[in-house]
Write a structure and sequence with these properties.
Blueprint: H1 2-17, E1 20-24, E2 27-33, E3 40-45, E4 48-53, E5 60-66, E6 69-75, E7 78-83, E8 91-95, E9 104-110, E10 124-128, E11 134-135, E12 140-145, H2 161-178, E13 182-185, H3 197-206, E14 213-222, E15 232-237, H4 247-252, H5 256-273, H6 277-301, E16 305-311, E17 323-330, H7 336-340, H8 343-360
The chain binds zinc ion.
Zinc ion binds at residues 146-147, 153, 161, 220, 252.
């Protein structure tokens, strides 16, 4: 009798605290609602994902019926999700309250098929709730045309960066929307988001810290005092590769002493992320996106391949979303500058970027 009562109590609390489970192409997402934002320490061992939260939740447990996950349990501040046989990886993040939604613990379990790096977060196909309502969500991508307003970016006799980045981003936006992607632009005209550079870059990156955002793509034009410098490079966040100087990150972070300070801050957060498993998982996705974009761009333009690189760009330092920064060419180059000034060339660049993003989202 006592045991029956206990089971009934367990069943009741299960209803109360049951997570939402979404089945997506490429991964399964389990979402627990939290009373407030908190810290999380994650351990994935064998068949279970254990998350220690900095708060206490009502006890609950139950079965999960979705690819990759079989059960969950909540006890005190610890949430455990049991993985299905053969599944060994998960990405865990705690999202702060935003857009009318409360704080959430999000556990993504990638599909089993891929080796090494997890499959890209793919187009959500259906989100099922225990209450059995079903809705279809479109993937959301944030495009960030670099600079604008009080900050024109690099300038040469052929191009002005803020104009080129906006034109390319608008073309990428149109192409993605044609394919059903929900696109958010950080700007659609020649404007800054804030006169202060740090606040401006914060406002841009904040647009991506939404649970439904699949990618953040910042578009820039490179510059060098050396007119022979040319080519395309794509960055994701991290410490610069050995021997590389910091001048590009400093310039893109606002230049001068502001750029130096923001680069210093971003570099120290890169250092802190090294031990953070969640951040490292997001960076693996970022790298995957960067590789796709870079190879599509080189194939489409024939430009010199400067490769996928890492550096401390302030605008992509937030690891809650796969995020990259593309330098689509050198406006200072007497070869690339005039090319970037041509709408047809910018269209080729935009299509290559859009194609790579669609590919990353597993969309046609
Ligand atoms: Zn720039």
């Amino acid at each position: 009798m006592k045991r029956l009562l206990l089971l009934l109590l367990l069943a009741a609390s299960t209803v109360f605290a049951a997570p939402r489970v979404g089945t997506h192409e490429g991964y399964t997402r389990v979402v627990f609602d939290l009373p407030r934002a908190t810290t999380a320490q994650t351990k994935v061992t064998g068949q279970s994902v254990t998350v220690k939260l900095g708060l206490t939740l009502p006890a609950a447990q139950g079965k999960l019926n979705a690819p990759g996950v079989t059960a969950y349990a909540v006890a005190g501040g610890t949430v455990t999700v049991t993985l299905a046989k053969g599944y060994t990886r998960a990405q865990v993040s705690v999202l702060p309250p935003r857009d009318g939604q409360g704080a959430r613990l999000v556990i993504d379990v990638p599909a089993r098929s891929s080796a090494g790096v997890a499959a890209a977060p793919a187009r959500p196909t259906a989100v099922t709730r225990p209450a059995s309502t079903t809705k279809v969500t479109r993937p959301r991508v944030v495009l960030d045309p670099g600079h604008g307003g009080n900050d024109p970016g690099m300038q040469s006799r052929w191009v002005q960066e803020e104009q080129i980045t906006l034109d390319v981003a608008l073309r990428v936006r149109d192409e993605l929307r044609r394919h059903g992607v929900d696109v958010v632009m950080t700007r659609e005209t020649d404007r800054h988001l804030h006169p202060n550079k740090a606040a401006d870059l914060d406002a841009r990156s904040r647009l991506a810290s939404n649970a439904n955002t699949s990618a953040f793509v910042s578009i820039h034009v490179n510059a060098s005092v050396n007119p022979a410098a040319h080519g395309i490079e794509t960055y994701y966040f991290g410490q610069p590769l050995g021997g590389q100087n910091r001048s590009l990150a400093i310039a893109e972070n606002g230049g001068g002493s502001i750029g130096q300070e923001l680069t210093r801050q971003a570099a120290s957060s890169a250092q802190n992320l090294l031990g953070d498993l969640l951040a490292q998982a997001k960076l693996a996705f970022s790298r995957q996106l960067a590789q796709k974009v870079q190879s599509r761009l080189i194939a489409a333009t024939g430009a010199y391949d400067r490769g996928v690189q890492t550096d401390a760009f302030y605008v992509i330092r937030n690891p809650t979303t796969p995020a990259i920064l593309i330098e689509i060419g050198f406006g200072s180059s007497p070869v690339e500058g005039p090319r970037l000034a041509q709408p047809a060339y910018r269209d080729r660049i935009a299509h290559a970027i859009a194609r790579a993003i669609l590919d990353f989202l597993n969309m046609k």
